[in-house]
Amino acid sequence: MGMSRKLSEEEKLQRQIRRDEKSVEKEAHPQVDKYGAKILRILREEAPDNPGIKYNSEYFEKRLDVSNITVLRAIKKLKVNNLIKERQVHGSYAIEEKFSEEFYSKHCSDEIKKNVSLIASLGGLLQQYKNTPLYESVKDLIYFLQPEIVKGDKIFSSGRVIVAPQMEYDINIQSWEKVYDALLKNRKLKFRYTKPYTNNKAQRIVWPYQLVLDNGSVYLFAYSEYADLVLLYDLNYMTDIVVLNEGFKLPKDYDINNYSGGGRLGAFKDDNKQTFKIRFTDYAKDWIKHHKWADDQKVIKETDEYTTIQFSSAQEEKVFEQIMKWGSQAEPLAPRTLVKRWKEEIGALWQKIQK
Question: Rounded to two decimals, what is the model's pTM?
C-alpha cells in the first residue's frame, strides 16, 4: 500500500475554505466580522471613485494586513448576507445593489427595524465628531453593528431620527495623537500653553486624564504638577508637546464628571461648588422645566409669570453663559458673585448702547 501524498499549502487552503463555507452555510445570517465591515465600507465609499483598482482578496489582504484566508472568510459572510455580489465584477468584489423595502417589511425582525432609527441617529451623531480621529472608528463600528442597514446610503446618511447640525472641530491631528498616546500609556506630558493671558514660555508637565470634546473644542483634562490642580487645556493652544518616559498612576476619581459639582453644562470644572437660584420668565419659564442644568435641579417656585429653579454646580462660568443667552428671560438670584457679575455685564452692555 503506497504512502499518501502530502498536501500542498494551496490544497490545504482550499480545504479550509470549503470547511469554512460549510460552516457559514449552516448559519441563516452569520454575523459580519470586523474585517467584513471594513471591506464593506471600502467597497461602498472608495471603490466607486477608483475603478482602476482591483478590490480582490489580495488587495484586502495587504490593505487590512491579515491573512488571505481571513479575507475569504469575511467575504463569504458578506455574500451570505447579500451585501456583496456572488461573483466579482471586472476582477473586484462589488456591492450587491438589490435592495428594497421588502428587506425591512418581510425579512427584518422587530429588533432590526428599531435599529434603523438607532443607526440613522448614530449617522447623524457622527457629524459631531467630524474632523476628529474618532470619526473613522465610530463609522467602522456602525458598519460592524448593523451592516444590512448601513448598506443603503440614504438610510445611513440621513435618517428619520438625526442630530441637528453641530459645530465642527478644528484639531491639530499630530497634537491629538501625541496626547492620546500618553493617555493610553499613562505617561506624563510636557508642553507649552499659548492661550492668551498665560505664560507662553513656561513649560507645563501634566498627568493626562481625559480628552474632552465639547461644542467644537477639544480639551485635555489633566493634573498639573506646577499648579497642583486638575485643569482643562484647549488642545489647539498646546505646542511643543512631548510624551515623557515617566509614568503616573491614574487616580480612581479622574473623570471630569467628578469635578462639575453635579453641573451638566459641558467642559468646565471648579473647586467651588455653589447653590444657584435662577428666575425665568416668558418662554424660558416653561422651557427650563424640561431641561436640566444640574443633577439636583428642582423648581422651588412657580407662578403664571415666572419659574424659579435651584441647583448645585461647580460650573459658574457655564451657568453665566447660559443666563446671558436667555437675555431678559433669565435673572440670577444666587449666589451673590453671579448676580454681581450679571449686573456688571448688563451695565457694560448699556454703556455700549449709549455711545
Answer: 0.66
